[in-house]
Amino acid sequence: MPTPPDRPVIPSRIIPAGAPLPARAPEPGEAPPWRTASPPPPPVIPPAAPVPADPEPVPPPQVVHHVHEVLLVTPEPEPEPALWARVWDWLWEHLVTWRMLVAVLAALVPWFGGDSPVSLWSGAVHQLRDEAGVLAAYVVAAGALAAAWALDRRTGRAVPRFLLVTTAVGAFGVFDWWDPILMLTGVHK
Predict the structure, then answer these.
(1) Most buried of 51, 95, 143, 144, CB within 10 angstroms?
(2) 134 bridge partner residues
(3) What is the mean pLDDT of the chain?
(4) Using an 8 Å Cβ cutoff, are 152 and 161 in contact?
């Protein structure tokens, strides 16, 4: 049972590790066997010669006892941050880097005769959808996205990040608004 905070725990004896425990507890009024006899009183010194009287008598020395209480407190762990704070920190540590900013700008800015790399990739997978079929376009878009992601994970350089952004954003060209209806009902346009 824990001791209330207003009553400190005062050990009566500390038994060192490996020492044998006492055979029995002391009886009431009996000195415990582990107590050592008190040292003999100091020898009586004869009183010194009387000192001439001072105008103020010196008070007799007083015995002062100092009591120190030790309160051991384990610090409470810091609360875990909220989910949105952890997501925000992860985004700033992993996604918003100079490589990502360079890759996004390079992928979205038009530099091929008015077309950006994202719009070119989007147009290519959409044309593949029309010519080779829906499944082929999804396979090519997903395969290119997986390859760019694996390359970016392995190197972490700006060019693979550029390819990842281009394939990720450009893959939206493979979608058609009719796909969910086709998938749920099987009805073609």
Answers:
(1) 144
(2) none
(3) 82
(4) yes
Of 123, 130, 134, 135, which is closest to residue 172 (Cα–Cα)? 123
- Give the model confidence (pLDDT) of 110-153 as tens digits: 887 889 999 999 999 999 988 998 899 999 999 999 999 999 88
Q: Where are the alpha helices (DSSP H) in 46-157?
A: 83-90, 98-108, 117-132, 134-155
Residue whose pair of structure tokens reads 């309160």 in the numeric block: 71
Under 8 Å between Cβ of 137 and 125: yes
Token pair for 185 = 């009902």
Nearest-5° angle of CA 15, CA 19, CA 23?
85
Q: What separation in angstroms does the CA of 123 have from each of 53, 107, 127, 137?
A: 114, 14, 6, 11
Entry pTM: 0.50
pLDDT at residue 11 is higher than 60: yes
The three-state secondary structure class of 76 is coil
DSSP output for 36-52:
PPPPPPPPPPPPPPPPP
